[in-house]
Amino acid sequence: MKLINQSVKQLNQELTLEGAMKAAEYAGRICYNSTDKITEDSYKGFIKGLVARGHMSPLAHGIIYFDFPKDFNNTYLTILKHNNFSYTISSKTRVFVATNLRVLYENFNQKEINTMLPYITNDDKGIKYSSFEVITSIGVSRELNRHAVSLAICEQSTRFCNFSKDKFNREITFIKPEWYYKCKDYVQKEFVSTLGLLETNYMNWLNLGLKPEQARAILPLETATRVIYTGLNIDWLHVLLLRSSNMGAKNVHPECAEIANLIANKFDFNIKDV
User: What residues contact residue 252 under an 8 Å CB cut-off, 6+ apart?
Assistant: First the structure.
């Protein structure tokens, strides 16, 4: 058993097709805890596999910017414009679209996508997305995941991750709650003892032949999880106003507020950012 603190890491994506695919691969591999399998070109087969299986959610983390001429295929432009994940700026001669790979692969075939690729640009025109890798508890991720309308989300799966395997050091990792350092020693010991018992029972259930998706029923809310969140900065502002106590949010769960505060610290919100 391992006890850790929550943490946040900002992820940076290269503004190219390859950069978008690598970002999508990383998000997808978080689900299976297989980021150790990433190589320089592993994204090619991985993305192809996601599309073949219809597992599109990781593709939403691969951000793409297009700069189309005004007379580009109007049907394509209409589809690109009208969804929750795109942002559009139009002028007299050009149409700028900020979107992601999920929008492309859910709405177009490969031949149609190929006609758009020459218009990819690395100029974001100030329309910025931000991605964060969050280490938190299952309980807190449930709260943050309620913002799925605003954010793309990929989370480590307790269905497919078997904590008895070597990649997890044959142990379960738990998050130290915000009250852990404030309570009496005997309360800490009881907390640790209870988690240890749950870990033992989880391992025993697997030894009895249950699958991880069945044994996970015993996992407590303080079980650690990894999540990738990606969204427009303007959408992050909305989320943080609801979740970050440093930005004035009220009645937020303390551990959720801690994560939101760590994310808010990465921003300097002003008109050019949002």
Answer: 242, 243, 244, 245, 260
